[in-house]
Design goal:
Layout: H1 5-11, H2 37-44, H3 59-72, E1 76-80, H4 83-94, E2 100-104, H5 109-121, E3 125-129, H6 137-140, E4 145-151, H7 163-173, E5 176-180, H8 185-188, E6 198-202, E7 216-220, H9 222-235, H10 241-250, H11 254-273, E8 278-282, H12 292-298, E9 305-310, H13 313-323, E10 328-329, E11 339-341, H14 353-358, E12 365-369, H15 375-387
Helix pairs in contact: 3-10, 4-9, 13-15
Length: 388
């Protein structure tokens, strides 16, 4: 097998059946047939590898996991029904009452809810650290700290932190470093190769890339994934075979899609940085980004998300979004179609205004997920919306 990303994503495939199909079929089966009673016993005793029930494994989920593990540089993985299922399953597999998490303050709204409401009920505590203040992270680590968790780039602030730095802290204090790699994808950033123990994706986003299917994945060493599987096979957050098939096929075009997303996003960021109605533009590969040098060190390109703050607060933000004609107004991102989101009233609305302000989510903040349309049409729509 080639070492090249594109070839791995396209040519990694389940074993062909007797029908000699060129593209992997969809295995829509809940269960599997055993040759005899002894094979059934051996499979359930983990003495033999194979499929026993699609809540545990399925040829389609196995193909998706194998591809993602190869692309991330991981040994193994477990596929989940959604990205949030991947985060919850990871936390639940490794945390117990009395444990502690150090997390980046800028996290997705539902991740914030897990930390503040769900795991708090079960006796798990946490402290938030700022991505732009790496000097503060070590002081927050306690004897009972089990996980260092980080989104980089963050949602929606597009903040970056040095993963090799965090890997050093995790090693020093014997904690797990868990990275939400959703915005970067394995094409742009590979946290495990930078020292992370686990890399998580909402495959709903760029892995699918076309707004069709929900999915998530947890990647790491065989030993760590075995602990994830031990929890997941009983709690049942499994990815459906159909969605696994979609996501695996989508990986075949991930590289070419991300190249265009990044190319378009950089042009949008450069254009908006000079616009008089824009207060702030955040994009990792703009020299003005506070962590620009770190982004260039650990990311291949800057990604497809541009976060802006328009002058005039929430009213100006609403006017801009309502003026868009081609962009979709949606809470999703990473689609072929360009999308505009107002985080303060949608994805991060459950945070207090103080919490939003700390992570840079202002009333005038808008997250732009730059799609694959022609760049001239993207810029034309932005310009007319700003002028409306």
């Amino acid at each position: 097998m080639s070492d090249n990303f594109e070839t791995i994503a396209i040519r990694t495939q389940t074993e062909r059946s007797s029908h000699k199909e060129h593209s992997a079929p969809i295995y829509l089966t809940s269960s599997y047939k055993f040759d005899d009673a002894e094979e059934m016993r051996a499979l359930f005793a983990n003495e033999k590898e194979g499929n026993v029930y699609s809540r545990y494994s399925n040829p389609n989920t196995s193909e998706f996991i194998e591809k993602m593990a190869l692309l991330e540089g991981a040994e193994d993985g477990f596929a989940t029904a959604t990205g949030m299922a991947a985060i919850f399953t990871t936390f639940a597999a490794f945390l117990k009452s009395g444990d502690h998490i150090v997390s980046s303050r800028s996290v997705f709204g539902s991740t914030h809810q897990l930390l503040t409401n769900v795991f708090a009920k079960w006796g798990v505590t946490f402290d938030y650290a700022d991505l732009d203040k790496p000097q503060d992270w070590e002081a927050l680590i306690k004897p009972n700290t089990k996980i260092i968790f980080v989104e980089t780039p963050s949602n929606p602030g597009i903040d970056i932190i040095d993963l090799e730095f965090l890997a050093g802290l995790a090693k020093k204090y014997n904690t797990l470093l868990v990275v939400d790699n959703c915005f970067a994808t394995p094409y742009l950033q590979q946290p495990i190769k930078l020292g992370a123990h686990i890399s998580i994706h909402s495959a709903t986003k760029y892995i699918d890339g076309q707004g069709r299917a929900l999915g998530g994945i947890i990647l790491g060493t065989k030993a760590l994934i075995a602990e994830v599987v031990a929890f997941a096979r009983h709690s049942g957050p499994s990815l459906s075979p159909f969605n696994a098939w979609i996501l695996s096929k989508s990986l075949e075009t991930l590289a070419v899609r991300m190249d265009r997303h990044c190319e378009n996003a950089l042009k949008v960021a450069e254009y908006l940085e000079k616009h008089p109605k824009i207060k702030l533009v955040k994009y990792p590969f703009l020299p003005s980004h506070p962590q620009h040098e770190i982004a260039k060190k650990q990311m291949k390109q800057g990604g497809g998300i541009v976060t802006i703050v328009v002058n005039g607060g929430i009213e100006a933000a609403r006017k801009f979004m309502d003026g868009l004609k081609m962009f979709s107004i949606s809470a999703n991102l990473a689609d072929t179609r360009s999308i505009a989101t107002h985080p303060a009233t949608s994805t991060h609305s459950k945070l207090s205004e103080e919490e939003r302000n700390i992570v840079g989510i202002e009333q005038g903040s808008i997250r732009l997920s730059i799609g694959l349309e022609h760049i001239d049409d993207i810029l034309k729509d932005i310009e007319q919306a700003l002028g409306s």
